[in-house]
Amino acid sequence: MRKFLLFCLSLCVGTTVGYAQDDEVDHSFEFVTNAGDIIPHGSVYVINSVVSEEDPETGELTVLIPSDFMVKNVSGTATDLVRLANEITRIDNGSYMTCALGSCLPGRTEPGYFSSASGTIAPGATSGDLQTEWYPDAYGECDVELQIEMGEDLGFGEFGFSDYGPKITVKFVYSDPVGVKDGISSRPAEIVGRYTLDGQAVNFLTHGVYILRMSDGTTRKVIVK
Prior knowledge:
- By secondary structure, this protein is mainly beta.
- The chain contains no helices and 17 strands.
- Strands 3-12-11-7-9 form a five-stranded mixed β-sheet, with no helix packed on it.
- The protein is elongated and about 55 Å long.
């Protein structure tokens, strides 16, 4: 996953849908936000927080929408092996990627099912950021059903499934922040100036914190790691 992030929109959580009842899944592990809030089983989690990555050499921008949640072992005792089942039900364009539980998988551009690598999460601990992201090529949506699966290590990398954990639907939404005016679609804002924190103009970005001045008059802070 790229390290250069430019945060520019907001994140919101939606409503729930009709999945299996809570007593039909094992809640030893839960989806939680980075702030520690549990995302209930059956929730629809809408993410429209757009991040842009700028190539320090060319200035070219790549857009992505990252997740901000993890898996947490809330049981206090469970030591099961866990993995993340992914079912892409809609992807309008671009590619969907995940590095959940420490193994990055190739980007997916079509609907379909696949699972992440498996790993253990100590009681009371989290998986860390699941690094589940959509890289859109244009405005649209990518919907993914995510479910925690529990099991045991059968050796030679084989996962022995035992129980289903909570399941949520994640909707990555990339929409025009400006909208359409007078029947003409406005172009996304472009970078027109790059500055250090003390106001010095620069042509290229290296390591550090910078301020970007956009063509729509707004400014954005970026961090280059």
